[in-house]
Specification:
Elements: E1 12-18, E2 22-28, E3 34-40, H1 50-58, E4 72-79, H2 81-87, E5 94-99, H3 105-108, E6 130-134, E7 137-138, E8 144-146, H4 150-162, E9 167-171, H5 180-192, E10 196-199, H6 200-203, H7 209-237, E11 244-248, E12 254-256, H8 268-283, E13 289-294, E14 299-304, E15 310-311, E16 314-316, E17 319-321, E18 325-326, E19 329-331, E20 337-342, E21 345-352, H9 370-376, H10 399-413, H11 419-441, E22 453-457, H12 465-472, E23 476-479, H13 486-493, E24 496-503, H14 506-509, H15 513-533, E25 542-551, E26 558-561, H16 565-580, E27 593-604, E28 626-632, E29 635-643, E30 652-654, E31 657-661, E32 664-668, E33 672-676, E34 682-686, H17 700-703, H18 709-733, H19 737-740, E35 745-751, E36 756-759, H20 770-778, E37 789-792, E38 804-812, E39 819-828, E40 857-861, E41 864-865, H21 867-874, H22 884-912, H23 914-936, E42 942-947, E43 953-961, E44 966-970, H24 986-1001, E45 1015-1018, H25 1034-1052, E46 1064-1068, E47 1073-1076, E48 1085-1086, E49 1092-1093, H26 1111-1117, E50 1120-1127, E51 1143-1149, E52 1153-1158, E53 1179-1183, E54 1189-1192, ...
Parallel strand pairs: 1-4, 4-11, 5-6, 5-9, 9-10, 13-22, 22-23, 29-31, 44-45
Antiparallel strand pairs: 1-2, 2-3, 7-8, 11-12, 13-14, 14-19, 15-18, 16-17, 20-21, 23-34, 24-27, 25-26, 25-27, 28-29, 30-33, 31-32, 33-34, 35-36, 35-39, 37-38, 37-40, 38-39, 40-41, 42-43, 43-44, 46-47, 46-52, 48-49, 50-51, 51-56, 52-55, 53-54, 53-56
Helix pairs in contact: 2-7, 4-5, 8-13, 9-10, 9-11, 10-11, 11-12, 11-18, 18-22, 18-23, 21-22, 22-23, 23-24, 24-25
């Protein structure tokens, strides 16, 4: 096409989604018609950039020629460029400027390790190149304790700039609200010449230093990369007067390219899909949808019930983002998800083959992936897929290679199943992963998913929608005619949007109407200035004002439309009850409701797309292109192949059928009927004649004797998902910092005999010990009736220590006559009484001094909450609980979590039958036992003696029976129980053993009772590890458990020592109670292949994995100031492989408190192994307000006054192997 021919075709628009695998383009012709194209995102043999290449191809412009001015009106685009740069750590070099004392805060993060059972702990790479500390300090109330030192700051910034750093992230304590120091630093950085300046109060004006800081870093790290990408597009189009280029933000609105920032780009592509899904569903008359966007790399799921849901804290690529993003849950199950058959198990993902090399069928020597499944089963027909493969990019998908790969696995299994059976087995597991992701955003949040429509889109979505919907009980699937490229279509439908937030001041928190109005108007005016600068007129701009509202001192806020305070309060209570099953007044706590943040979203300028309506087809006969074979439900069935373009209103298609369109394939499964609506879109309805997934047709008799590997994996996933859903509900509904923010809880399901079936990996010290609590209920003397719930914390009857309270719920059959299963949740309560606030006193010598003992008490009796009785128990005795209302609230949250587990287990029984569920509960235990036995086959006998600073010793001898593949773990010789609280109940020792052997498995094996079935544990009664009543035990759970773990790893010679303590710090008075555990470095060691590794700095290890409270939250809720939390570089034990570095943490108190410390290795350092050097000893000290220092013992108690500080310096693990060996 020559340039003259373009004159009558100006004002083209291009709506583009540049995904990880494909780039989708919707081009709107000047006459309003739409055309669609799909290109590989990475195809370096053919083009430099898929978007530019696609635009020029559609306009028939040679790749090297410029695009004539005026030809393009707008380009609207979503891109994964920023996400990929973050994933691959290929952003810009950044200087971090942060408050003094916090130079390592973002590296430490919240101190939890990402993989609970990893021997070699790996943390995400830090994003900054250099960090400087800024001499300044502001309190949570805005008091300037230390004015900004301008001269020192200037010197530090100039030095960094002279070293080549031009991007800076400015993150100061409480800078989100008290902005003066950050603004001064911004001006300073600008004068010096920094080209990218990201300040936290602008990037993310929300509370939480760590997540706001990481967001600011991301902004500084990625914005230069985005600007370069935008420049590349402009250069590629080579226009003299560039067309307007708009980018989709993570929050679901468009913004001009010159205002597009790194903070807004992380979910740029998926956000377009949600916008498109909502708009198209509304046109079809659906107001409740589950968005299901399946692409080549992953699947994004979302929930919509009248308004776009946003999350204000999200973790992406190991980085916490504290900016508004559409609430999207991503699961690593896409067309490129890699398939493996290992150790008798079918694995799907999380790794992806991507676009390069891609699946086997892409002809690039790739790996077997989900796309190969559908090709093998006939659900993708190669002749309807773009022929863009091979050296010349002109060959179709290679089905022969896909089938051969599945055939090889079938031969390996050797039980007579075909290649198609293998492929369908992998498909069932992929469907399960996607269904579980949807449950997390719906069922776990109180929504009945069966009342929703599954709005399916993405290039791979149509091939799986029916199966996913059926798995969830969803009866309707909606597929827009552009479902294969709906994210790109959504770019065109989106508004230009800007959102601003303001953290509420005390006046606004209390609901002062005039203060709210002033704040809202200020936010609106700032938004209007932004939008008018992007080309919108005032008449085009609309505003939506909302508030994030929560209960005082909790972390779960809800989006409430702005109204009078009383109206918002009622709306909040109603929504809270709907989502979480209770309100804050239900327990009698009557917690105050506060406005946390005001939000104004302003928007306008969306395209007015009118979808054509079709008249009723005169000829209801359907043009059949051909008939092909697809493999479904274990058999080959004939399926009609129909072009979507040949269907119109009134047409119906019975499954099985293959409906093809230019951007995707839609499979109408057996038992489904597809109807064409008036706009020409497909609405699929489930008509249950028989179950669509072969995994749901398990023959119960055979299930009891032999495990099918596919079904085994499905049940593994289902059981673990139930435990995880329970955890989501518990965290959402709890009111304590310990549960909500520190995540000091665990949830599990058990069979009818109390054997552990699945335990979501929350806190390791809870693992393997909760079953003891359940079995106490089972074998107790109390009656167990339907509707009963029990509460238990007795360490001598299945518990761990008194603050860890376990709530146990029996699961009855439909007739309420037989108990089928049990579910349980364990949470660390902030105070249960005792001689010191927080119930973690170092002085206790008797269990009753540690708090209230609840021994198999009915919390709920036949459906009635026993509030009065439980409150009386907490208030009784010499040392009653200090905050009974909060105890009751958390017990209610645990009960709600258990109810979720009950409901999901009963659904599983309805779906599969009780005998099958029982059979696979046994099969997964057998599988776990086999995994442990494989570990035993490569271990050798060992023993170790581990001295403690209390003058006691832990002795362990491990004997391996290589013939019968059993191990005996014998603690004979361990010291007798002590007259202190370092005694550990037997359940804790069992938990430590389970944890160690689960770590050695080094595979994604569900944690269940099977892990212990090849292990015999001997723990002498009356010893430190199996004490007699009423010895105190609170430190045994947190301290001795760490020592047991170190002793076990040392006996096996597999891992160097950890710090051997949790550094437990508890402080409080009658008003406040707070507890934290403090990290150190991780151990060095060798993996199963004999490869050595160093430890990493500042991360929790072994029997704890609780999060640290954010510094700003800590200071807002408690009368303290965090003075420093830093990594002590080069402090880890030395050897061939070094242990990770430890930390120093100092807290200053602003009012009188009592303080307890439970810690170890303050006298002797953790050992070195195989010739490695010992680590360092830890240290605790008190610094008085007058500067006087006082050393504190490892286990100590002290009172502190206003201005006093407590410092904790962690011990570090020893080195592994001789240095220079």
């Amino acid at each position: 096409m020559n340039q003259d021919s373009h004159i009558s075709y100006k004002n083209w628009q291009f709506w583009i989604d540049r995904g990880g695998t494909f780039t989708d383009i919707v081009a709107r012709h000047p006459d309003g018609t739409l055309m669609c194209r799909k290109y590989l995102s990475e195809n370096t043999e053919a083009y430099a950039d898929a978007a530019v290449y696609g635009i020029k191809s559609i306009l028939d412009i040679h790749p090297s020629d410029p695009v004539p001015d005026g030809l393009i009106d707008k380009i609207k685009m979503g891109t994964t460029v920023a996400t990929n740069a973050l994933l691959e750590r290929k952003g810009d070099s950044v200087l971090l400027a942060i408050t003094q004392g916090f130079k390592d805060a973002l590296e430490i993060g919240y101190q939890a390790r990402p993989d609970t059972f990893a021997l070699k702990i790996e943390k995400p790479d830090i994003l900054y190149t250099q960090v400087i500390e800024i001499n300044e300090r502001v309190t949570a109330k805005g008091e300037v304790v230390q004015a900004l030192d301008i001269e020192l700051s200037k010197k530090a910034l100039e030095t960094a700039y002279s070293q080549g750093l031009t991007a800076i992230a400015i993150v100061l304590m409480h800078g989100y609200q008290h902005t003066q120091h950050e603004k001064q630093l911004m001006q300073l950085a600008k004068k010096i010449g920094f080209s990218q300046i990201s300040a936290s109060h602008e990037v993310s004006p929300l509370q939480k230093l760590i997540s706001r800081g990481e967001t600011t870093l991301v902004d500084a790290y990625l914005t230069p990369i985005l600007l370069q990408y935008i420049q590349n597009i402009s250069q590629g189009l080579n226009q003299h007067t560039p067309a307007q280029l708009l980018f989709m933000q993570s929050s679901g609105g468009l913004t001009n390219a010159d205002t597009f920032r790194g903070r807004d780009a992380i979910l740029s592509g998926p956000a377009g899909g949600i916008v498109g899904a909502v708009h198209t569903a509304k046109l079809a008359g659906f107001d409740k949808i589950i968005g299901f966007d399946m692409g080549g790399t992953s699947t994004d799921v979302s929930h919509y019930a009248g308004e776009f849901e946003k999350a204000y804290e999200t973790k992406v690529a190991g980085v916490r983002m504290r900016v508004p993003m559409l609430h999207i849950h991503t699961v690593a199950a896409g067309g490129g998800s890699i398939l493996r058959y290992l150790d008798g198990r079918f694995r799907v993902g999380p790794e992806s083959a991507g676009a390069m090399p891609g699946p086997v069928c892409y002809r690039r020597n790739g790996e077997l992936a989900v796309t190969d499944i559908n090709l093998c089963l006939g659900k993708i027909q190669a002749d309807f897929f773009p022929s863009i493969f091979g050296p010349e990019q002109n060959l179709p998908l290679d089905k022969t290679s896909s089938v051969k790969a599945f055939t090889d696995i079938a031969h390996n299994i050797g039980d007579g199943r075909s290649a198609e059976d293998v492929a369908e087995g992998f498909l069932a597991i992929a469907i399960e992963h996607m269904a579980q992701a949807i449950k997390k955003i719906s069922i776990a949040r109180g929504y009945d998913v069966s009342k929703y429509v599954l709005n399916c889109f993405g290039g791979a979505g149509g091939q799986h929608a029916c199966l996913v919907a059926e798995k969830l009980g969803i009866k309707t699937v909606f597929l827009h005619s552009y479902s294969g490229i709906l994210s790109a279509y959504g770019m065109g439908l989106a508004d230009i949007k800007v959102e601003r937030q303001k953290v509420a001041c005390p006046l606004i928190q209390s609901g002062d109407a005039s203060a709210m109005q002033v704040a809202i108007e200020n936010l609106k005016q700032a938004n209007i200035e932004d939008l008018t600068s992007q080309g919108l007129s005032n008449s085009q701009i609309h505003h939506q004002s909302t508030a994030l509202i929560k209960y005082l001192n909790t972390d779960t806020s809800l989006h409430i439309p702005l109204d009078s305070y009383s109206a918002m309060e009622k709306n909040f209570i109603r929504q809270h009850e709907q989502q979480f099953g209770f309100s804050g007044t239900a327990s009698g706590a009557d917690k105050p409701i506060v406005i946390d943040t005001l939000i104004v979203a302003s928007y306008g300028g969306a395209e007015k797309v009118v979808e054509a309506t079709h008249s009723l087809a005169k000829d209801l006969s359907i043009k059949i292109h051909s008939v092909r074979q697809i493999y479904t439900q274990g058999q080959w069935l004939e399926a009609q192949v129909i072009h979507l373009s040949s269907l119109t209103f009134g047409h119906e298609v019975l499954g099985p059928a293959i409906i093809v369109e230019p951007t995707g394939t839609i499979i109408v499964e057996n038992n489904w009927r597809a109807k064409v609506n008036v706009n020409g879109h497909l609405v699929l309805h489930f008509e249950p004649l028989k179950t669509a997934l072969r995994s749901d047709q398990i023959i119960e008799e055979s299930a009891q004797t032999k495990a099918d590997p596919v079904t085994l994996e499905l049940f593994n996933s289902a059981f673990m998902s139930i435990a995880q859903q329970m955890g989501i509900v518990l965290r959402n509904t709890s009111q304590s910092v310990n549960v909500k923010e520190r995540l000091d809880f665990s949830c599990a399901i058990f069979d009818a005999t109390g054997n552990l079936i699945a335990n979501a990996p929350h806190v390791p010290v809870h693992l393997g010990s909760m079953d003891a609590s359940v079995k106490v209920i089972i074998h107790g003397t109390q009656s167990i009736n339907s509707g009963d719930v029990f509460v238990q914390n007795n360490p001598y009857n299945g518990g761990s220590h008194l603050p860890d309270i376990t709530v146990i719920t029996p699961v009855f059959d439909a007739a309420n006559t037989h108990i089928l299963f049990y579910v349980a949740s364990r949470a660390h309560h902030e105070d249960v009484g005792g001689i010191a606030p927080g119930s973690m006193s170092s002085l206790a010598t008797d269990i009753h001094q540690e708090g209230i003992l609840l021994d198999s008490v009915k919390l709920v009796e036949q459906g009635q909450f026993q509030t009065a009785n439980i409150e009386n128990l907490f208030s009784s005795g010499d040392y009653p609980a200090r905050n009974v209302a909060q105890n009751m609230a958390d017990l209610m949250a645990q009960t709600a979590a258990n109810k979720t587990g009950v409901n999901e287990l009963l659904k599983l029984v309805d779906q599969h039958g009780l005998k099958t569920v029982y059979a696979y509960m046994q099969h997964i235990q057998d599988s776990a036992k086999t995994s442990v036995q494989k570990v035993l086959a490569r271990l050798e006998d060992g023993e170790f003696s581990y001295p403690l600073e209390s003058s006691s010793t832990i002795k362990v001898k491990i004997s391996i029976d290589k013939i019968n593949l059993r191990a005996c773990i014998d603690f004979t010789g361990t010291s007798a129980q002590q007259n202190n609280n370092l005694n550990a109940p037997k359940a804790i020792t069992q938990a430590a053993v389970m944890y160690v052997f689960r770590c050695l498995v080094n595979d994604d094996v569900p944690l269940n009772a099977g892990c212990m079935q090849a292990l015999d544990i001997i723990v002498p009664q009356g010893s430190l590890l199996n004490p007699r009543f009423p010895a105190a035990v609170v430190a045994g759970n947190v301290e001795t458990s760490q020592a047991v773990t170190n002793a076990l790893f040392a006996a096996l010679g597999m891992l160097g020592s950890s710090q051997g303590t949790m550094n437990n710090l508890t402080f409080g008075n009658q008003r406040y109670q707070y507890y934290e555990t403090i990290c150190s470095g991780s151990p060095a060691g060798v993996d199963a292949q004999g490869n050595g590794f160093n430890g990493v700095a500042a991360v929790h290890t072994h029997m704890t994995n609780t999060r640290m409270t954010d510094p700003e939250i800590l200071e807002q809720r408690y009368p303290v100031m965090l003075k420093e939390f830093v990594i002590d570089r080069d402090s880890g034990g030395k050897g061939k492989w070094h242990a990770g570095d430890g930390i120093t943490r100092t807290i200053t108190f602003l009012e009188d408190m009592q303080c307890s410390i439970l810690s170890g290795h303050r006298i002797s350092p953790p050992y070195g192994l195989r010739g490695g050097e010992a680590g360092r000893i830890g240290r605790n000290w008190l610094t008085k307000a007058n500067g006087e220092q006082q050393e504190l013992a490892g286990c100590d108690f002290t009172t502190v006054a206003d201005g006093d500080s407590i410092s904790i310096q962690s011990p570090t693990g020893g080195g592994f192997g001789k240095a220079n060996e």
